[in-house]
Design goal:
Strand content: 35-45%
Strand order of the largest sheet: 11-12-13-10-4-14
Oligomer: single chain
Largest sheet: 6 strands, mixed
CATH class of the largest domain: Alpha Beta
Shape: globular
CATH topology of the largest domain: Gyrase A, domain 2
């Protein structure tokens, strides 16, 4: 049996009668009172997520001399201190080893935040590409809570002060929380106004308890998080992107800076010149059924691809999904059929995000 890692909040989740399940090698809460209820609370109030399973690394040194500048699909040295940047760690073929965010802590120091299931491999791969500097895995020493929803700012300002209100999107500040230094970042994975809080692991439970005393805040699990992220079209590593998928195929070229060197650049340039054999597509189902991972996508009578993520969207009151199809012309509004065994549902091509009215940039 797989031995699952536990976050500092595992006992809290069980006390709240959470449904627990393995995710990325961790024992994680899937839901508390229910996915739909938790989703609705995040869209209207403030939901609190345990995200301690994510990986965190520190690099300190000269970004160019140490080799970090050439590791990711974006420039590290041009990130202003106090800001963060999203992008990819690629293999030589241009496939996505992981998607991640780099936080510029100081002139010569960054924090790299990666996905749980890929964290160990990420640390090995990044370390193998460095030529100098100090590179440290701080995952077990770091706690991470996400508070997301239109009331998240009000909650944190009342608890910790007005400086939080001034944090713009994709910026962060270091501040004292519960007597320790913490990072409060205006980022998230829900399409709502929200913050990610990084602090010493030993303080995570105290912060969790404090925030849940506020009646505007309720806990939410990974089930609601998955619905929230898909409604706004965010990719999930391991489902929508992986080592066999390039950013170009995934419609994420905007996070690739071809004006700099990085591992996988030549493969992506070749694919860009020759054209990718497949492409990401988004669709909306004409009904309340949920398309599922691996369901087949048909255009007319021809199977053209398969679904990678799909859910029932409470905000749109219908099924939505994304998948990959053979390269071609799929205009918005074009009809599709989503099928699997005896299941068949009619769908139409649409643009992302599915849900456009979140409080993300409020």
């Amino acid at each position: 049996m797989e031995i699952l890692q536990q976050t500092p909040l595992c006992s809290r989740h069980r006390d709240l009668k959470a449904l627990m399940a393995p995710f990325g090698g961790w024992d994680m809460p899937i839901q508390y009172e229910g996915i739909i209820a938790e989703h609705a609370w995040c869209r209207s109030q403030a939901a609190l997520f345990d995200i301690c399973h994510m990986g965190e690394f520190l690099f300190q040194g000269d970004f160019e001399a140490g080799g970090l500048e050439d590791v990711f699909t974006f420039s590290v040295k041009t990130i202003p201190p106090g800001r963060s940047r999203y992008g990819f760690l690629l293999n030589e073929q241009g496939g996505i080893i992981d998607d991640l965010i780099v936080f510029r802590l100081a002139g010569d120091k960054v924090m790299i935040v990666v996905n749980a299931a890929t964290a160990d491999n990420d640390f090995t791969v990044i370390g193998s590409r460095l030529r100098g500097g100090e590179f440290t895995n701080i995952t077990t020493a770091t706690g991470k809570l996400d508070i997301q929803g239109p009331l998240a700012r009000e909650v944190l300002v009342e608890a910790f002060g007005g400086q939080i209100a001034a944090i713009p999107y994709f910026k962060f500040i270091s501040m004292d929380i519960l007597g320790v230094e913490a990072i409060v970042s205006r980022t998230g994975y829900t399409g709502e106004l929200g913050y990610e809080i990084f602090l010493p692991a030993g303080k995570t439970a105290e912060l969790w308890d404090l925030l849940l005393k506020d009646r505007r805040v309720k806990p939410a699990g990974l089930g609601a998080r998955d619905v929230l992220r898909l409604e706004v079209g965010y990719s999930l590593y391991g489902s929508d992107i992986d080592e066999a998928t390039t950013p170009l195929e995934a419609g994420l070229e905007g996070f690739v800076n071809f004006d700099k060197q990085f591992v996988g650049r030549e493969a992506l340039l070749k694919q860009k010149d020759g054209g990718a054999a497949r492409q990401k597509i988004a669709f909306q189902v004409s009904g309340r059924r949920s398309p599922r991972h691996h369901y087949e996508i048909f255009s007319g009578q021809q199977q053209v691809g398969s679904v990678t993520s799909g859910v029932f969207s409470p905000m749109l009151a219908c099924g939505v999904g994304i998948g990959f199809v053979s390269a071609g012309d799929y205009p918005v509004g074009a009809p599709l059929t989503i099928s699997h065994e005896r299941v068949s549902m009619e769908a139409t091509v649409c643009e992302l995000p599915f849900f456009k009215d979140g409080s993300l940039r409020s």
